[in-house]
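Throughout our pipeline, every protein is held as a single compact record rather than as scattered files. Such a record has a labelled line for the sequence and another for the backbone structure tokens. This encoding replaces a full spatial description with a residue-level series of whole-number codes. For reference, a complete record is included directly beneath this paragraph.
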Amino acid sequence: MITKSGCNIIHHSELAWEERIHDGDKRHRAKTYWHDAENNLHMRLVDQPVNSSEPPDVHPGTHATTVLKGGALVDGVALHALDVILNYGNQPHGPLEFPKGCQLFSCFQGSNDQAAAETPATEKHYRFIQTESIPWDAKAGGALHMKTLVDRGAGRLMLTAMRLSAGFTVPVGSRPHMQAALVVDGSAVVDGETLNAWDFMYMAAGVPHGPISFPKGATLLMVAMRPA
């Protein structure tokens, strides 16, 4: 990790993969970008191999998982890039299937202690957010487009997709809440440091950050926590 102009920057290529094993079976692998201890929020990159699946399980924490590449199949519903699965704490969910493989961004709040669901869920307590059904909202004269993916159902967690045109710059600023961003495609530049696809930046609450520029344009997945 390096810090530039108030932004903590993590290049995903510098993070080691952590193998996730369940009942002796290697399921998938993950990289942890950041643990926000104040909010008990873990942000991770997850890689699901071709023809893998996640059996029904349950855990205390709530998580919002966004498809970055590939796809997922849940209850016959196909999910694609920037679609979100919102799973609530202590509610059985699954199975999830990844016939073509999938890379995902997971925001997990609370305990990730995992247990197999003893009985299949008769009611579906998770929610899908399918991004194609949400219109882009143009800002800054059309140089910035935004769509809200999660603003309810996950406590104070908010997820927003942003598309920034080539040459756009986010000015110096700060927020009353933590804010993080994953580069989905394109690139961002902070004080001479370039972030490419799947690189990550974290900005603490109340800490000013310098300008963030997008010389070639980018799509970002923004994470924020509303103040308590």
